[in-house]
Amino acid sequence: MNIRQLTEQAGYRLPAAPQPVGNYRAVIEVGKLVYVSGQMPLLDGELMFRELWEQI
């Protein structure tokens, strides 16, 4: 089983990554570290956890 199948079996759905809105690198790998930039938790184009985000 691959990770997507295991995730779906656990009841989670992984949405497709959104299209970039700027000219940047979303992920940079340096050695064993991966730096992620500009990623928001979106599901079907809508911000997930909106209530939590509005409290920040």
CA radius of gyration is 14 Å
On the 0 to 100 scale, the average pLDDT is 77
Strand residue content: 15-25%
Domains (count): 1
Largest sheet: 2 strands, antiparallel
- What is the string of helix and strand elements? HEEEEH
Q: Please identify the oligomeric state.
A: single chain
Distance between the termini: 37 Å
In DSSP terms (H or I, runs of 4 or more residues), the helix count works out at: 2
The helix-and-strand class reads alpha+beta
Description:
This protein is an alpha+beta fold. The protein has one domain (3-55). 23% of the residues lie in helices and 21% in strands. The chain contains two helices and four strands; from the N terminus they run H-E-E-E-E-H. It has helices at residues 3-9, 50-55, and strands at residues 27-30, 33-36, 42-43, 46-47. The protein has a two-stranded antiparallel sheet. The chain has a two-stranded antiparallel ribbon with strand order 3-4. Strand 3 (42-43) and strand 4 form a beta hairpin. It is extended and about 35 Å long. 0% of the residues are buried. The mean pLDDT is 77.
In short:
The chain has 56 residues and is of the alpha+beta class. Helices cover 23% and strands 21% of the residues.
Which helices and strands occur, and which strands form pairs?
Layout: H1 3-9, E1 27-30, E2 33-36, E3 42-43, E4 46-47, H2 50-55
Antiparallel strand pairs: 1-2, 3-4
What are the key terms here?
extended; 21% strand; two-stranded antiparallel ribbon; single chain
